[in-house]
Amino acid sequence: MAISITVNGRLHEVVADAETPLLYVLRNDAGCKGVRYGCGLGQCGTCTVIIDGKPVQSCDVPVSAVAGKAITTIEGIGSVDQPHPLQRAFVEEQAAQCGYCATGIIMSAKALLDVNQSPSDDELKQALSKNLCRCGTHQRIMRAIKRAAAEMRKF
Amino acid sequence: MADATAQRKLPGSLQTNRNLSQWLDINADGTVTMRPGKIEIGQGILTALRQIVAEELDVNLERVKIVTAVTALSPNEGVTSGSRSIEESGVAFRYAAAEARELLLARAGAKLGVSLEQLSVTDGVITSRSGGSVSYWEITDSELLQREATGEAAPKPYKMHKIVGTASPRVDIPRKVSGAPVYVHDMAPPGMLHARVSRPPSYSAELVSVDVDDVRGMPGVVAVVRDGRFMGVVAEREEQAIRAQRRLARNAQWREVPTLPECDPRYLLKCQAKSEVISEKNRDTPNGRELAGEYTRQFLAHASLAPSCAMAMFENGKYTVWTHSQGIYPLRAEMAPALGVPPEDIVIHHVEGAGCYGHNAADDVALEAALLARGAPGRPVRLQWMREEEFAWEPYSSAMVVKTRAMLSDDGHVTSWQMDVFSHGHSSRPGRGQGSNLLAAWYLEKPLQRAQTANPPLPGGGSHRNAIPIYEFPNQRITNHLIPDPPLRASALRGLGSQCNVFAIESFMDELALAAGVDPIEFRLRHLADPRGRAVIEKVAAIAKWKPNSKRSGDQGRGIGFARYKNGAGYMAMIADVELAGTVRVPRVWCAVDVGQAINTDGVINQIEGGIIQAVSFVLREEVKYDRERVTLRSWDDYPILSFAEVPEVLVSLINRPELPPVGAGEGTQGPVSAAVGNALFDASGVRLRDMPFTRERLVAAMTRE
Ligand code: FES
Ligand code: FES
Questions:
Q1: A138–B186: do the CB atoms touch at under 8 Å?
Q2: What is the layout of strands, in order, in the sheet containing B32-34?
Q3: Residue B2's pLDDT is what?
Q4: For residue A101, which ligand has an atom nearest its CA?
Q5: Is the domain of A8 the same as that of A70?
Q6: Which candidate, B433, B457, B543, B621, has a CA 20 to 30 Å from the CA of B483?
C-alpha cells in the first residue's frame, strides 16, 4: 500500500506493507542511513528517531502508525559541515570508538535536551537507558552531551 | 608476496610488501596517498598511521589521504588483530615515508644544485639555506616510489616529533556522528537487492524436508537459493527478504541432535587434551605451605552492536565483495574453494563495520552474500544478519578452566608456582587451519571440512596467552592443555586467553598475599623485578590513593590486577572499587598504562577506557548460554551488557615512553580488570568468586556456602 510520511520536513510516498518497521523505510526509502539497525527488537537504541518530540525506536514501530507525524532523524539535525551542537560536542570529546551507537544516542539526548536544558547525570542515564554501546565509550558520551547542553544553554 | 628468505629483513610489514609504491604516492596535486593493509575497526588506527606518515614526510596532516584496503591494490598485511597494527603497519609506514622523503630531497638537491645538508622541509616545501625552494608536488612523478624499500632511511628521532605523540582528532568521527553512510551496512548502489539466510536451529541439525517453491512466489522475492543445508532469499525490499526468510524457516523441518556438553566450563576437564609444558623452572627446593585454586569462565560473545553484514555481486563468473572483515586477503583465499573459483576471480573491498573486538561473523557473512548473489547475477546483493543470528552463530571466545597451585614460604615468598590451563584454541580465522573456517562452507551440498581451532604460537599465544606469570618465582611449571574440537564455534576475542589466565594469576596472588599477611601491592612488588611493571603498579596505587592493608568498610571493597600483555607488549595495572547492593557494582576503575611510545595519546586513552568498561561487563555479566542441542542466545535479554547507569567511571594515567617502540593498546585490559574486580569483591564481601561472571546468583550462592 502507499503510505506518506514526513521525514526531516520532507514528504515521502512509500509503497510498502503497512506492517513494515519504520526503520527499513527510513533507511531504504528516505535514504536516512544514520538510522541504524542493531537488533530490530527495541533493545539497543541504534535506530532511535524523534517523533512528535519523543524518542522512538524506529525498529519497533510499523510505518503505518506514523503516517502524518513529523519524524526527525540524525540527518535532520545537522551535517558534517553544519553540525548540531551535540554532533560538534561528540567530535570535540572524541566520543566514539566505532561510532555505531552514536547517532541513536544523539537522538535520545536531543529529545531530552529539548525539554530539559540542564539534566542531572541520573536524568541523562535514564534518557539513555535504552541505548547500548558495546565499545565502552559511555563516559566520553556523557561528557559530550553535557558539553552540548552547556553550549545550547547559551542560546 | 615475495619470498623474503633470501632478502634483507625490512621493518614491519615492509618485509612482506617490499615496494614503496605499494604504501605511498606523492601526488602532483599537493596530496599524499597512503594505502594501509590494516583496517579501521573503531580503534582509531587510520588516524595514528596518518600521523606517522605526516610526521616523517614533514607535511600537514590534511594533505594525507587514506585509501582503505582492497585486494589487488593494498599491501597484504594479513589480519588486523592482536593489537599489532602499530608494530606492523605503523613501522612500515614510518620507514617508507622516511625513505620517500629522502628520495624527494635527493631530487630537490639535484634541481637546486645544493647538497642535502642545505635542505629543510616545511609542509612539503623543500628550502635550501642558500635560497631557492621547490615543493614535493613539483618534483614527484610515478617513477619516484617504484622501487624496493631499503629500510635504511632513518626515521626522525622522537625528540623531533611534532605530530606523533599528540592527541590528534580521529579522522572518521565527524562523519560517523553526522549519520553519514560510513558502514558496509549502509551501502545502497542502484539496483541493490536485500538478502537473508534461513539457518538450522542448531549446529548439527539435519534437514528433514523443506518447501522452497512456496517462498519463490512471495512479494518481491527475486531468488531462493539453496545449496545443501545453506538456504537464503533475495528480494527487492529488505522487509520482503525478512518475511520470505521467516516463511522459509517455517517451511523447513529439522532433526536436532544433542551434541553439546553441560553449560559449565568444567566439561573441559573431562575432554581429551594435547598437553604441553610451556615453562619450567627448577632453581631450588620449594618450601612452605601449599595453596591451590581453580578459576573458570564461560564462553563469551563479541556481541557487536551491529550484526554482521556484507554486499556481493556475481557477474560473468566473478565475484566482487564488500566486507568489514579484518583480513581481506585471508578471506579471499578461504572464499575461493567454497565458491569453486580461483582467488583471482574474487575482488574484496574493505568497508568499515561496527566494533567487532576480534573475529566475529564478518567473514562468514561475506561468503554467504556471495553465495546468495549467485541467485541474482549482475545485481549487488546486501546480506544483513539479524540480531538473533549474530548471537547464535558467531564464533565465541572459548570457555576456560585454570588450576593453580603454589608453595608459600614462612617469610611470605612464593617458592613454587604451578598452573594448568584448559581451553580450546582461540583462533579460527580464515587462513588459519586445514579446512574451512567459514560457516556456510560446512553446510553446502558439497561441504568443506570444518577447520580445527588453533592457537597462535607463543610468545603471543592463544589459550596460553599470559599463562606464564611475569613474577619471579624460583620454581614454576606451566602446562597448556589444548582441547581441539570446541562444541561451540570458537575464535579470537580481544585478549584471547589472557583474560582468564591473568584473572587466575592475579586472584591467586591476592589469595597468597592474604595467606602471607602482606598487602597485595607489596606482595606483587616483592616478586616483580621488571621496572616498567613496577612503575605502572606504583602509579596506579598513587592515583587511586591505595592504603596498604586497609579493609574497605561495609559493603565496599577495592582490588588490584596487573599484567604485561602477551608478556611482551603493554603494561597495565588496574584498581577497581566494588559496591555490593544486591548485585555487584563497579563504580570506579583506575588504570596506569605503559604502551611504549604513544602515537596518539588520546587514541590510546580512548581504547583503554573502552577496554576497561567492556571488561567490567565481561566479568560481571557475560556468558554464552546453551542447552544440549543449541546455543540459546537470541537477544540482548539473553546476553545483557552494562548500561549507561551501570558502567564505571574510568581514570586512565598514561606513562608515555616516546623513546621506546610503540605497542598496541586495544587489548590487555581484560585480564587485569577481571582480577581487580574479583579482588575488590573479596575485599568487600570476604567471599572469593573464582567462576566468572560474578552474577548475583553466584555471589549469593557463595555467601551462603561460606
Ligand atoms: S534496532 Fe531498534 S532498538 Fe535495536
Ligand atoms: S562506539 Fe562502538 S558501540 Fe558505541
A1: no
A2: B24-26, B32-34, B64-66
A3: 43
A4: 2
A5: yes
A6: B621
pLDDT score, position B1: 41
Longest Cα–Cα distance in chain B: 86
* CATH of segment(s) B4-171: 3.30.365.10
The residue type of B84 is R
Residue numbers of chain B with a pLDDT score lower than 50: 1-5
Which residues of B, range 462-481, sit inside 8 Å of A by Cβ? none
Nearest by Cα to B81 from B462, B608, B499, B556: B462
The domain limits of chain B are 4-171, 184-257+303-393, 400-426+461-705
Measured on CA atoms in the order B653, B655, B661, B667, is the torsion positive or negative?
A: negative
CA distances from B11 to A35, B92, B109, B596 (A): 43, 6, 27, 18
The answer to whether A78 faces chain B, any CB pair under 8 Å, is yes
Given a contact cutoff of 8 angstroms between Cβ atoms, the answer to whether B75 and B17 are in contact is: yes
For residue A80, being part of any structural domain is answered with no
Spell out which residues line ligand 2, taking CB within 6 angstroms.
A 96-101, 133-135, 137; B 42, 305, 354-355
Are A45 and A71 found together in one domain?
yes
Domain of residue A14 covers 2-75
Tell me how far apart the alpha carbons of residues B314 and B193 are, in angstroms, rounded to a whole number: 12
Cβ(B352)–Cβ(B176) under 8 Å?
no
User: CATH topology for B400-426+461-705?
Assistant: Aldehyde Oxidoreductase; domain 4 (3.30.365)
What is the predicted ipTM?
0.97
Q: What 8-state DSSP symbol labels residue B86?
A: I
Work out the angle at residue B362's Cα, subtended by the Cα atoms of residues B43 and B222, and round it to the nearest 5 degrees.
135
Spatial separation of the C-alpha atoms in residues B135 and B156, rounded to whole Å = 20
**Chain pair A-B, CB pairs under 8 angstroms:** 181
- What are the backbone angles phi and psi of residue B215, rounded to the nearest 5°? -80, -30
Q: Which residues of chain B have a CB within 8 Å of the CB of A23?
A: none
Domain annotation covers residue A93: yes
The predicted pLDDT at position B232 comes to 98
* C-alpha cell read off for B523: 606482595
Which amino acid belongs to residue B567? N
Write out the three cell numbers for B418: 604451578
Do A102 and A63 share a structural domain?
no
> Rounded distance, CA B121 to CA B127, Å?
6
